[in-house]
Amino acid sequence: MDPTDDQGATWATDTTQRRGPGPMAEDLAIASLDLARSFASGATMWCVAPSWAPHAQHVAVEFVHPVIVGKPALAAVAIGGGDLVGTVRAVAQPGDVLVAVAPAGEAATCALMRRAPLWGLKSIWIGSGCRPPAGSADHVLWIDDELNRSAYGGRIVLVYHLLWELTHVCLEHRGLLDQGAGTPREQCDGEVCITCSDEGRLAEVVDTGPLLRARVRTAGGLESIDTTLIGTPRPGDLVLVHAGSALTRVDG
Amino acid sequence: MADQMSPEMTDFLYPCVAPQARDPRALLIELAASADAKAAQSFEIGCTTINRLEAEISGIATEMVRRFTAGGRLFSFGNGGSATDAAAFAALLRNPPQGHALAARSLASDEATITALGNDVGFELIFSRQLIAYGRPGDMAVGFSTSGNSENVVRAFREARRRGMLTLGMAGHGGGQMAACGDIDHCLVVDCDSVHRIQETQDWIGFAIWEKVQAVIAAQVET
């Protein structure tokens, strides 16, 4: 819709398009507690916004340089540049948090979100408009506006301002921070495993060896797999692993 | 510098959950209610401000289009979160989701220039020295400061005024030095003392200006 074609009523002044978090409030609360637990365990928060770069820096500076005197400075970093997947893979460590401010379907963000669990990262996806598919990130903080204009005009800024404030409240409740934090992900070492044998699991190729073998990183850690079915993959490729074999490549 | 609030401004919140509590449910309920209340507050401040400034925003947009059409460029600046708000405003004008792309950019986005100026001549001059290099009489300077007191922003307005640029200030609290300095053609003050609520409203004002700019351009194209 053209912002100017509606008899002078524009999106900026059409207040019916600007409601508060409403249903998102609960998601914000849960995400904030999870984020606080990560910070309490020593996590760094990596912030990306591939198509709205200022948002990544705004999120990061809120946490690094608190607006309220006396609040602790937290480790948050904005990441820009071309190869976001390569950069986050290189700098992030298991237990860290990835925050993306991006529309659903944004290619670099999708690639990062798919890999986040393989790298041991928690993920928070903030955006507006059409939602990403369920399960795309650990926490999805979404403004459901049809025009997808919330990247502008302060509404997405409000979401991460609230995330910052609520996270600091959680950090003041020390008794809540050690529960569920740092829980190791489910390990799977053997070739036969009820969970793994029943389903394909996402993995990222680390490197390839002789005899059509490859080392891959899954949510459970490093594994050696057979790549006979897909041919030799390249480092960084995503593959679906089932019972010790790569079944197919996965886009992204 | 970024503007800080005193700690007591949020300490009255969340009184019901003891710091040593171990069941998160009570806290989560309070947090959700607080988020909802803050959003409502942000919305109310935004509505009030946009309504109050409607005529001024319209006049600013008309003048900006006149300058853009004549080849004028827009430079935005601020510190911390306000630097990102300045960059977002320039990006909205330059790479709009629709409509006409305009010559706008942020003076806070080049790390080489910022650190060179900050290191060699002083942080209070990082924007004004750039305007000496870039600024021409038909250009526009848009500065963001929630307190209205950021020294490098105030100094940049002085330089912009000296060079005949249009000066537009986005301030909060009472407007601070920005409201008092006499170098700003339009000083838009958000009547609020929360840094976060001010920033959210300033972004809304920026968006409203962009919409009005696009409307003025569209009207020109039709006639």
Description:
- The complex is a heterodimer of chains A (252) and B (223).
- Chain A has 252 residues and is α/β, with parallel strands linked by helices.
- Chain A folds into 2 domains: 20-176, 3-Layer(aba) Sandwich (Rossmann fold), CATH 3.40.50; 194-250, SH3 type barrels (Roll), CATH 2.30.30.140.
- Chain A is built from 6 helices and 10 strands; from the N terminus they run αβαβαβαββααβββββ.
- In chain A, the strands form 2 sheets. Chain A has a 5-stranded parallel β-sheet with strand order 2-1-3-4-5, covered by helices on one side. Chain A has a 5-stranded antiparallel β-sheet with strand order 8-7-6-9-10.
- In chain A, helix 1 packs across helix 5 (155-171).
- Chain B is an alpha/beta fold and 223 residues long.
- Chain B has one domain (23-222): Glucose-6-phosphate isomerase like protein, domain 1 (Rossmann fold), CATH 3.40.50.
- Chain B has 8 helices and 5 strands, in the order H-H-E-H-E-H-H-E-H-E-H-E-H.
- Chain B has helices at residues 8-11, 24-69, 81-94, 111-120, 128-134, 151-162, 176-180, 195-222, and strands spanning 74-77, 104-106, 140-145, 166-171, 186-189.
- Chain B has a 5-stranded parallel β-sheet with strand order 2-1-3-4-5, sandwiched between helices.
- In chain B, helix 6 (151-162) links the parallel strand 3 and strand 4 (166-171).
- In chain B, helix 3 (81-94) packs parallel to helix 8.
- The longest helix of chain B is centred in the N-terminal third of the chain and has 46 residues, at 24-69.
- Chain B is globular.
- Chain B starts with 7 loop residues before the first helix and ends with a helix.
- In chain B, 54% of the residues are buried.
- The interface between A and B is large, with 56 and 65 residues.
